[in-house]
């Protein structure tokens, strides 16, 4: 590999100003996001009160309210279902809002039983879904996704309503006890839908932005390597500085996103989970090394210390490229698979 020769240190004021503006924009995006994020709901397949298969893809792009109940409950469930009916009336003008009630007693709560219960509480067809099915799936949703069951894994349920946004992120929990108002829930639904209040920020589009930034960094790194092999030193310098800027923006977006969304878990099991975790481990380990390696490599090049620059660049380039490419792979496996 030829040394990465740079003629002279570039004037970076304009690029720094642009970077600072982008940082402030992204920081403002996070700052104005008033609704917190409590986790992400994994994909699931259950059965509705009509007996039809209910795939969670039905909820893609929809705002929805979830609760857990069972039809033979003599305690809070009837009140919760009455409250859910009230919510149904309040959001009648919002066609993209759904209500989802998960039973915690699937052996008793078969589709015909749920259909009778739905009729009792006047559940609107296509709007309010009462779901039953696999105990394992329901327990995973109750305990692990919504965190509304006991940690010992027993089938219990909370009296809270959970609000889920269009991307499947849990954005709030709301009490249904007597004397508690559900007006904050209705306000939050309208905020997410963009009616009556300012819509929430697009901070949850950042995973896709991060994937684009990683892909751009990978392309720039390959391009920069090809340029120096052809002796196009000045263009090579500019391309590598652009790659560094793009990777810096990725790091900023990554920090902002996870400060808001927390940890997003890979829900699939089996061999594909092993593959994902292996890629994630190597990606994370090497990603920690990229900032110091890139900074030292750039510094040596800009100071015309070419021999030492070339020595470290032989390590920096493949590690940096691997992290950029696997960043796209991790995004695809976690959010799109």
Structural overview:
The chain is of the alpha/beta class and 337 residues long. The protein folds into 2 domains: 13-33 and 203-336, Cytochrome c oxidase, subunit III, four-helix bundle (Four Helix Bundle (Hemerythrin (Met), subunit A)); 39-193, 3-Layer(aba) Sandwich (Glutaredoxin). The protein has 10 helices and 8 strands. It has a 6-stranded mixed beta sheet, with helices on both faces. The longest helix has 31 residues, at 306-336.
Distance between the termini: 37 Å
Q: Write down the CATH topology of the largest domain.
A: Four Helix Bundle (Hemerythrin (Met), subunit A)
Give the count of structural domains: 2
Query: What's the architecture of the largest domain, going by CATH?
Result: Up-down Bundle
Largest sheet: 6 strands, mixed
The CATH class of the largest domain, by name, is: Mainly Alpha
Q: Within the largest sheet, what's the order of strands?
A: 1-8-7-4-5-6
**CATH fourth-tier homologous superfamily of the largest domain:** Cytochrome c oxidase, subunit III, four-helix bundle
The number of helical elements comes to 10
> What structural category do the secondary elements indicate?
alpha/beta
């Amino acid at each position: 590999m030829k040394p990465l020769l740079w003629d002279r240190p570039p004037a970076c004021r304009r690029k720094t100003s642009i970077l600072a503006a982008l940082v402030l924009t992204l920081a403002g995006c996070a700052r104005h996001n008033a609704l917190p994020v409590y986790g992400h709901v994994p994909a699931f397949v259950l059965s509705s009160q009509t007996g039809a298969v209910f795939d969670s893809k039905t909820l893609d792009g929809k705002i929805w309210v979830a609760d857990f109940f069972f039809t033979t409950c003599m305690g809070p469930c009837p009140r919760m279902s009455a409250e859910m009916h009230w919510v149904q009336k309040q959001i009648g003008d919002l066609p993209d809002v759904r209500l989802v009630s998960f039973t915690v007693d699937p052996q008793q709560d078969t589709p015909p039983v749920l259909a009778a219960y739905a009729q009792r509480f006047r559940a609107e067809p296509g709007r309010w879904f009462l779901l039953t099915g696999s105990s394992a799936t329901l327990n995973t949703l109750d305990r692990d996704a919504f965190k509304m069951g006991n940690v010992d894994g027993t089938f219990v349920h909370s009296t809270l309503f959970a609000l889920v946004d269009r991307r499947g992120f849990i954005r709030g929990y709301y009490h249904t006890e007597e004397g508690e108002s559900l007006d904050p829930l209705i306000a939050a639904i309208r905020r997410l839908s963009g009616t009556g209040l300012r819509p929430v920020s697009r901070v949850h589009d950042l995973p896709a932005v991060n994937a684009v930034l990683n892909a751009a960094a990978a392309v720039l790194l390959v391009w920069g390597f090809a340029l120096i092999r052809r002796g196009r030193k000045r263009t090579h310098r500019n391309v590598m500085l652009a790659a560094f800027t793009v990777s810096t923006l990725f790091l900023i977006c990554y920090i902002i996103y996870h400060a808001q969304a927390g940890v997003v878990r890979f829900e699939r099991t089996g061999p594909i989970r092993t593959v994902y975790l292996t890629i994630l481990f190597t990606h994370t380990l090497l990603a920690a090394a990229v900032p110091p390696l890139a900074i030292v490599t750039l510094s040596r090049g800009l100071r015309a210390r070419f021999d030492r620059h070339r020595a470290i660049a032989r390590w920096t380039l493949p590690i940096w490229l691997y992290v950029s490419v696997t960043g796209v792979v991790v995004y695809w496996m976690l959010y799109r698979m």
